What we know:
single chain, alpha/beta, Nucleotidyltransferase, domain 5, five-stranded mixed beta sheet, 4 helices, 49% helix
Amino acid sequence: xxxxxxxxxxxxxxxxxxxxxxxxxxxxxxxxxxxxxxxxxxxxxxxxxxxxxxxxxxxxxxxxxxxxxxxxxxxxxxxxxxxxxxxxxxxxxxxxxxxxxxxxxxxxxxxxxxxxxxxxxxxxxxxxx
Length: 129
């Protein structure tokens, strides 16, 4: 099953994709008025069957749930949530350890965080089977 993961941010949105049991960073897109349309195109292109959105603790929860509701109404795919606590910090730490340059880390940390969110989701789902 192809799954798209979204690390929603007010300026940037990190994306990751999985087929089977491995999550991979897909890229980062700007959070703009055309975001949902762009995500629909990405889902069609990659034959996505489900969307997983990282859900933080705190003030963004309400906005993310509203975004998820809007996306689900347009995309016609199931949308699920996964706790995203500390994924951005973990992604940054892993990129530093792997020797990624600062500019690369800044450009890609959101998609790496989306991949961590998705990997956690896949592992949780595997445990519950």
